[in-house]
Amino acid sequence: MSGARPRKPAATPPAPAAILRISSRNYSSWSLRGFLIARLAGLNFRTITVSADDPSTRAELLNNASSILLPCLEHEGAELWDTIAIAEYLNERFPDSRMMPEDRIARARCRAISGEMHAGFHALRSSLPFNLRATIPNFTVWSAARGDLERIFTLWRDCLAEWGGPWLFGARPSVADAMYAPVVLRARTYNVALDETCEAYARTIEAWPDLREWIDAATQEPEPRITELELDAEF
Amino acid sequence: MSGARPRKPAATPPAPAAILRISSRNYSSWSLRGFLIARLAGLNFRTITVSADDPSTRAELLNNASSILLPCLEHEGAELWDTIAIAEYLNERFPDSRMMPEDRIARARCRAISGEMHAGFHALRSSLPFNLRATIPNFTVWSAARGDLERIFTLWRDCLAEWGGPWLFGARPSVADAMYAPVVLRARTYNVALDETCEAYARTIEAWPDLREWIDAATQEPEPRITELELDAEF
C-alpha cells in the first residue's frame, strides 16, 4: 500500500446529454411510455418535468390538446416530440438494444399494435384518465371504453399465445409492452377485472423495474393534484 | 425472320404478392397515406377496397372506431394494420427506397411530425371530413380546427425553410409528405386559404403522380356516396 499514488477523488460523472421532457409522472401515460422506451434503448438520459401550469402542457394532460408534444426527447441535436417517433429513432440508433422483437413477423405485429395504441382507444383514454396514485374501486366502465378494453385484451392474449409470454413478444420487454403498460395501470386504478392470462401479463408489467422506479418517483415526489383529472372529486 | 422460333405469347406478369387493403379512395385519408407510403417504398402491391358496408369499416370512415385497422398491408407473411407501422416496416425492409430523409436530424423531424399527424389533429379530422370529390366553397372553419390548421402550416413552413422544399424534406417526397398530403386535399375541398409558401407546397403535393393516380381512380370509379360524410347534404 505504501508508495501507492494518492487516489484521485472519484470523478463526478457528466450529466447525461440526452433529455426526456415529460409532463407528469402521475397523470401522463405518454410520458411513462417515452420513459420506458428510452430505458429499453439503454439510453443514458435525464428526465425533466415541464410544469403543469404551462397552458399547452395542461391541455395535453386534460386530453384537450390538438397535438401531444410531450414526452419530447432531445438527443445529439435531434428533437422528437412523439412517442412512436422516439421509439423508432432509438431503435434505429441503438440496433443492439433489442427493443423491438428480432423476428420480422413479430416486429411487424409489435409495430401494428403499438400504432393502434398510438392512434386509437379514445374512449378508454377519455373516460379512464391515467392517474397512478388513484384507486377507484367501484368505477363503472361505460360501453365504449369497455369495447376498447376488450380489443386490447384480445391483442394481449393473441401475442401471449403466439410468442409464449411473459412479455407480449416473448422473453424480453419490447416497445409494445411500453405502449400498453399504462393500460395495466389504468386497470388497477379503476379495478378492471382481468382474466387469468391478462392478469399474469399485468403482473409481469407491474414487476418491470423501470416501471417500479417511475411509480416510486410519482409516489415519493408528489406532483400537484389536478382536480379535473381526479374522478373521485366531488363536483 | 424465317427460321425464327415462333414467339411465345407475352407471359402474364404474376399478380403482386403484397396487398394493401383500403376502406375508400374518396373518404379515407388513412388509406391514401398507406398507398403513398407503399409507393414511396417502391413496393409491388395491389390494392383491395373493403366494402364500406362492413360495419367496422363504416365506423372507421365515420370517425367512430376505437381503432383504425385500415389501411392494412399484407407482405411476406407480415400483417400491418397501422399507417406508421407500414411506413417503418417498409423503410426497414427497403432501405434503398429513401422514403425517409437520409440525414439523421431530418429523419427525426420527419418521424416527429408524422407521429403528430398520426395521433393528433382530431378537430380537423372530425370537422373537415376527408372527401376528395367534394368542393364546398363557403365552408367556415371553426376555431379548434383552425388551430389545427395553423399548427400544420407552421410545421410545413418550418420544414420548407429548413430543408429548402419543394417537399417537406427537400428534393424528394418522404413519409411526412404522405402523412400531410390529405391535409392539402382537405384544404382544397373546404377552400382553405393558404399563404404563398403553403400554396407552393400544396401544388407540389397535387402534382405528385401517385396522388394523381389515386384521385383519378377515386373520380373515375366512383364509390358509393356516404351521406353522413357529405357536408353539403341537406339534413
From TrEMBL, chains A, B:
Gene3D superfamilies, A to Z: 1.20.1050.10, Glutaredoxin
Q: Could you give a GO molecular-function term held by this entry?
A: glutathione transferase activity
> Can you cite a GO biological process for this protein?
glutathione metabolic process
Q: Which Pfam families match?
A: GST_C_2 (PF13410), GST_N_2 (PF13409)
User: What are the GST N-terminal domain coordinates in residue numbering?
Assistant: 18-98
Going by the entry's taxonomy, the superkingdom of the source organism is recorded as Bacteria
Tell me the protein's name.
Glutathione S-transferase
Protein species of origin: Falsiroseomonas algicola
